Amino acid sequence: MNEVNEKKLRLDALDRKILIELQDDASQSLDDIARKVGSSKTPVWNRIRKLKDAGVITRQTVILDPDAVDLGTCFFVLIRTSEHEASWQQRFLAALQARPEVLEAHRLAGEIDYIVKLRVSDARAYDAFYQALIAEVKIFNVTALLSMEELKSTTFLPV
């Protein structure tokens, strides 16, 4: 096991408390985090640096309200393909990575090969995505599912 994985597996209670606080609001001050986790500023700063160096914390970002930026329409796209060659997979991956509306893409086990989560302004924007995708890669079957209501969405990992 390499050193990074070794560090990932050895999170103690203080590390976990810090991670919970950062996931809740990464913009809070070190003083606030230290107070909430029952420590002082320097040890908290050192732990955060250690967690970043170990690859536990990969980046910090903000979460936007999709409706506020006119991306309130969410589609889940189920894709089946008859193509499984490495060159097709590379083209497919490049096509997905080039599309900013793609939030997530997963290769699946089972009858569906891939699932893609999109955020777009409306059905017309979804169709533009679909037309661009099928122009770039051969796809056997596409099923688009419109999310009628988001019941839960989080980036919070239960550490």
Explain the overall architecture.
By secondary structure, the protein is of the alpha+beta class. The protein folds into two domains: 3-53, Arc Repressor Mutant, subunit A (Orthogonal Bundle), CATH 1.10.10; 66-146, Alpha-Beta Plaits (2-Layer Sandwich), CATH 3.30.70. It is built from six helices and four strands. Strands 2-3-1-4 form a four-stranded antiparallel sheet. Strand 2 and strand 3 form a beta hairpin. The longest helix has 14 residues, at 123-136. This is Lrp/AsnC family transcriptional regulator. One of its GO terms (molecular function) is sequence-specific DNA binding. It comes from Paracoccus isoporae. Pfam families: AsnC_trans_reg, HTH_24. Keywords: DNA-binding, Transcription, Transcription regulation.
Q: Please, what is the average pLDDT?
A: 94
Q: What is the count of distinct domains? A: 2
Low-pLDDT stretches are 1-8
Fraction of residues in β-strands? 15-25%
CATH class of the largest domain, please? Alpha Beta
Kindly report how far apart the N and C termini lie: 21 Å
Q: Strand pairing plus helix content: what structural class?
A: alpha+beta
The CATH topology of the largest domain corresponds to: Alpha-Beta Plaits
Radius of gyration: 20 Å
**What is the H/E order?**
HHHHEHEEHE
The spatial strand order of the largest sheet comes to 2-3-1-4
CATH superfamily of the largest domain: Lrp/AsnC effector binding domain/regulation of amino acid metabolism (RAM) domain
| Tally of contiguous helical segments | 6
Looking at the overall shape, the CATH architecture of the largest domain is: 2-Layer Sandwich
Indicate the percent of residues in helices: 40-55%
Shape category: elongated
Number of strands: 4
The main pleated sheet reads as: 4 strands, antiparallel
Domain HTH asnC-type: 11-72
Pfam family, one: HTH_24
InterPro entries: ArsR-like_HTH, AsnC-type_HTH_dom, Dimeric_a/b-barrel, Tscrpt_reg_AsnC-like, Tscrpt_reg_AsnC/Lrp_C, Tscrpt_reg_HTH_AsnC-type_CS, WH-like_DNA-bd_sf, WH_DNA-bd_sf
Keywords: DNA-binding, Transcription, Transcription regulation
